[in-house]
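JOB MANIFEST
job_type = single_chain_structure
chain_count = 1
residues = 290
[input]
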Amino acid sequence: MTRCDDPVVLDQWYAVCSELELGEGLISTRLLGVDLDCVLGVDGSPSVRADGQVLPVRRRYGFVWTTMGSPAGDVFDIAEALEPDRRYVQCGWVTMRTSPGRVVENFLDMAHFPFVHSGILGGEANTEVAKYEWEVRRDVDEVWATNCRFFQPQVSAASDGAFAQLTYRVPAPYMVMLYRVSPSDPSRLDAIALFIQPIEEELCRAQPVMYLVDPVSEHTDLLQFEQVIFLQDRIIVENQRPLLLPLAPRDEFPTRADGSSVGYRRWLRAKGLRWGTVPSDSAAKRGVRA
């Protein structure tokens, strides 16, 4: 276990505990190879310490965020978090023995829906990933995939099968979001964020957080729906090899359906990100493949 020395990774904000957890007492966790202690002060403000030093803290979206570097900006915006009529659902932390980049790519991947989430997000009768667009939005330095469509037998906890209209957003190297035309109100978008906490290069935990337009579903139904999907995903990402994310263009060979992953990897390479990825020289020697 080694500390991260990659400035691209260090200069980011990470959610390290929920405020609900913190209300129960001291939270000991780990970020980028370093042990952290998270506590509430006497004034009710959270504090995060590492190696006896106080780290910067932000309170966003019901979570405590910190950084071990010097981020150029603040925690990314989730506009839907400001809309009071949305259902807000924290889905719980899931620990995975894989790299955080693999978790992001799995979230972006629609091709696995029919096989991993059969009967929920896909089915073997509809396996084609229709053409979609991806881009790096230079003004905000984010990766977006738009005009995504996929037939889903159960689009949400309260809806039947339909073609889901999806948009994906990567606002930070190890954060990712999904926007979905709401089955309850097609004029609005449901938003699902995935907050990833990198613990070590091949170990992380993640929590889906949902902002839904759904006035009818029970909270437990919303929670169970997302937890089932994410636990199915954990089996896949933990069995991918290598666990680290290959970034060299010829390390793994993409298909047309992998456009968002191609864009994501190019974006990471352009940043010079190294931590959590396969070193290019060792990848070439091992002949890494998907």
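[summary]
The first strand starts at residue 14 and ends at 18.
Confidence is low (pLDDT under 50) at residues 282-290.
exit_status = 0
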